C-alpha cells in the first residue's frame, strides 16, 4: 500500500515524538525537574486515588516543583477506568497518564507504554528501589509503570470485644483464631441465628473486600498467580510454589466454611449488612480491609475502639503474605502530549512527590528506603511493616473477576458444585478473559 506524502510526514513526526519520549523515560532518575528546553504544555492524569489530597499536594508543592502547575488530575472509579478510557480515547480526549493499581494493569496493558530495560532502566535497579510487590509492573517486555504506593490488606479488630473476652491482642495465626478465640467470640442463638459475627468470610456480595480476602488466602497458599511472557499469560492460581496443594481450592474451601450454618465456624450469611458497616456498628469482631480505610472507619464511628494488625498467617508458614493494591504511574500510548508527560514523570514518580501522594492518602510509599525508615502514624506503624509482604496478581479484568469469584462462592454455598468443581469452573472462565 502506498502512503501519501502527508501520511509519511505524520508518521515521521509521531515517530520522532515517540522516540524522544522513550529517551526521556529511559533517562528518568526521579526527584528532578524537567529539562527546561522541553515544552511541557498541559498534562492530564486520570487516577483511581481520590483527587482532593493529590490536587492539594500539587498546589502546595508548586513553588518547589513548578512542573506541577502543568498537571491536571482527575479521579476515576477503578471499576469504570477501562470503559471511560476507551470512550475518551475514541474522541481523542483521553488523559496522558494514569495513576492506577495493578488490578487494572492487565486490562490496560495494550494502552500503556512499556519503558524498555536498558543501561538506564534496569531490573536490578527496580528491584533495589521498590518493594517486592511493586515489581508486578516490571513485565517481561518492559516496565509498565513507576510504582507510587501500596495499600495492604490488614485485619481490623474490635479492642473492646477482645478485652472483654480476655484477649489483649489479635490472633497472629489462623489456628489461634479458629481453635482458640472463635468459640469464645461467636454469639449465636439456639436456632443458630448470628448475634455477633467473628469474621465476615463466606459470602461475596456483602463482603466489601471479598476479592482481596480470597486473593490473600491464595497468596498464603503459595499460588504462583499469573505469569506472563510477552503477551501470553499463564494462569497458575491452582499451582503452589511450595510444591503441594491447590491454592485457589484451599482458599475457596476455607473462605466458604464461615457461611455454612452446619459448620462450627458459621459466622456470616448473605442476609447481614455489608461487613464494614457491621464492624463500624460493633457487631463484627474482625474486619479484613485495606490500610487506607482506617480514617474512614474512624470518622464513621469516633466511639469505636479498634486497631489494625497484620492478617493471620498459617502456624507452619515460613513466608508471610497478604494481598494489597499496588499503584503506579503509567504513560498512555494515546497521549496527545507524550513529550510533556515524559517530562513531568520524574517529578510525579520521584520519591519526594510519590511519597507524599502515598502518605496523604493513608497508603504506604513503594520506595524501599522510605518504608525502611518507618512511620510514626498510629496505623502506619502496622501498614509499613505489612507492605513488604504485600503482593498482587494479574487479574484480567476486576469486574469480570468479581463475577467469576462471586459465582464460585455462590455455587459452593448453594451446593450446586463441590469445591473442586466450582474452582475448576472459575479457572476455565478466568483463562477465557485473558
How does this structure look, described?
- The chain has 434 residues and is an alpha+beta fold.
- Helices cover 39% and strands 18% of the residues.
- The protein is built from 17 helices and 15 strands.
- The strands form four sheets. Strands 1, 2, 3, 6, 11, 12, 13, 14 and 15 form a nine-stranded mixed β-sheet that branches. The protein has a two-stranded antiparallel ribbon with strand order 4-5. It has a two-stranded antiparallel ribbon with strand order 7-8.
- Helix 1 runs parallel beside helix 12, helix 9 crosses helix 17 and helix 16 packs antiparallel against helix 17 (419-433).
- It starts with a helix and ends with a helix.
- Residues 1-30 have low confidence and may be disordered.
